[in-house]
Specification:
The protein is of the alpha/beta class. 38% of the residues lie in helices and 20% in strands. It has 16 helices and 19 strands. An 8-stranded mixed beta sheet has the order 8-7-6-9-17-11-18-16, sandwiched between helices. A 5-stranded parallel beta sheet has the order 3-2-1-4-5. The protein has a 3-stranded mixed beta sheet with strand order 10-19-12. Strand 1, helix 1 and strand 2 form a beta-alpha-beta unit. The longest helix has 30 residues. It starts with a strand and ends in a 7-residue tail after the last helix.
Length: 471
């Protein structure tokens, strides 16, 4: 009778184990398995098993290829086992190749090929990964089309203080040819659960919705790629959502100016009882205390919402599209905020959910403010058409809406500016007047452009009047 012996722990028995035992048994007439004891695994192999020795022994004895199971208690016992059990062949997986050649003068030594795609270690790693992913609570979603900005954004995220529950970071690359994947690859070792997705449907809405679709967390934490988080940003989010009634949260979006801002910019800040905000640049600088605010103060660059609520209210509307697609522009997250407000929800403002919103020099110019005014005109036209067709909106959506009220206020400020700053030179004063006139004109141009486009295109009207834009 030709006897074969093999050794191992055989924890979490799987088909790779069975394949090895089958091959070993085919080498002879009788197969002995020396099964590592719990003490040997702990003290010598430095591993902990899921099943104890007795359970692992029962499993092996139930396999038809195994004739006898004996305990493996030391590394050195192999020589005595070969002698005591009159072994002809020592067989073991080829991951030990060469390690037991010293036994060749006692018996034949054969290294058997392993089943490569499976191992106990891999099973444990996959199980741990699955458990960890199920524990992910926060999904940080960053729509982007800019490699330099998203790289800077990820650098800030890599330095945040960790919350109690796990989080993931989803970078959603929208349509551009920039090599953003290389940035996420670079930060894989710095940021846990960092994932890259390419979204080929243009526009920020599609990236936001793709992020929500891929998210494993129950709380969606939306950032723009030019939003640079405070180190305690995610801790503050966790503190806020410890209250189970919270569905929407945000905080201060402070300016990070690329260069010294022009003097006229300060007159665009709106003052509220809570503090001040500048809508054209998505900036908020409110009091350093937790507050319940109207939901529309949640700006998209720092927009935290429960995933089930996001889907319940239909996600966001079209937002930030290329210039050539501007007829498809909508009012973004504004409509979602309005729905929340109308259903009794509000923004839980926590000043520690703080970001610094990057303001490049190019956004502190007349040209940018004209572009932003045109964009706002399109947005408000979109909202007005939906309101006229039965969708619920605030009463501010009309040609005499809040944007126009703001413009009137700006005009009053600018017309009196020479009285406020007596030393201002004529050139600066003329710039203020130009801003006022051109801002109003650009807003009206955007509004009229969209109204005309919708009037002349029934398919565009259908697009504007979709119930929601979730895929």
């Amino acid at each position: 009778m030709k006897k074969v012996i093999t050794y191992g722990t055989f924890d979490l028995l799987h088909y790779g184990h069975v394949n090895l035992l089958k091959r070993a048994r085919q080498l002879g007439d009788y197969l002995i398995v020396a099964l590592s004891t719990d003490e040997f695994n702990t003290n010598k192999k430095n591993k902990e098993t899921y099943f104890n020795y007795d359970y692992r022994k029962q499993l092996l004895e139930a396999i038809r290829y195994v004739d006898l199971v004996i305990p493996e208690e030391t590394w050195e016992q192999k020589l005595s086992d070969i002698s005591d059990y009159e072994i002809n062949i020592f067989a073991i997986g080829d991951d030990w190749k060469g390690k037991f050649d010293y036994l060749k003068d006692k018996c034949e030594v054969i290294y058997l090929p392993r089943t490569e795609e499976i191992s106990t270690t891999k099973i444990k790693e996959d199980l741990n990964k699955s458990i960890k992913e199920r524990m992910i609570k926060y999904s940080i979603i960053i729509p982007t089309c800019s490699k330099p900005l998203v790289e800077r954004c990820l650098e800030y995220i890599s330095k945040i203080n960790k919350p109690k529950y796990d989080y993931e970071v989803l970078v959603v690359h929208n349509t551009t040819k920039e090599d953003i994947k290389s940035v996420t690859d670079e930060y894989n070792n710095k940021i846990p659960n960092l994932k890259y997705f390419y979204e080929d449907n243009y526009g920020q809405m599609h990236s936001r919705h793709r992020g929500a679709k891929e998210a494993q967390g129950e709380i969606l934490c939306y950032l723009d790629d030019d939003s640079f988080v405070d180190k305690n940003w995610l801790i503050a989010i966790e503190d806020t959502f410890n209250n189970k009634d919270v569905v929407l949260a945000g905080g201060n979006n402070l300016p990070l100016y690329e260069s010294i801002p022009p003097k006229w910019l300060k007159y665009f800040w709106e003052k509220e009882k809570y503090g001040k905000w500048l809508g054209q640049l998505s900036l908020i600088n409110f009091h350093e205390k937790n507050m319940k605010l109207p939901a529309w103060f949640a700006f998209g660059c720092n927009f935290i919402i429960k995933k089930d609520i996001f889907y319940k209210f239909g996600g966001t509307n079209p937002d930030v599209v290329p210039k050539e697609k501007q007829r498809f522009q909508g009012d973004g997250e504004t409509a979602l905020s309005i729905k929340l407000n109308n259903n009794g929800y509000f923004l839980n403002f926590n000043p520690k959910i703080k970001i610094h919103h990057f303001v490049p020099t190019g956004r502190m110019t007349l040209e940018y403010f004209q572009k932003r005014a045109f964009y706002q005109g399109v947005c408000d036209s979109f909202s007005k058409i939906r309101k006229e067709n039965g969708f619920i909106y605030y009463n501010i959506v009309s040609k005499d809406n809040k944007s126009m009220i703001l413009l009137k206020k700006i005009k009053i400020i600018l017309n009196n500016l020479i009285k406020i700053e007596k030393k201002i030179i004529y050139k600066e004063y003329k710039k203020y007047i130009d801003i006022n006139k051109k801002y109003e004109k650009s807003y009206k141009d955007g509004f009229d452009f969209h109204q005309k486009e919708v009037k002349n295109d029934p398919e565009l009207l259908k697009w504007v009047l979709k119930e929601n834009y979730l895929e």
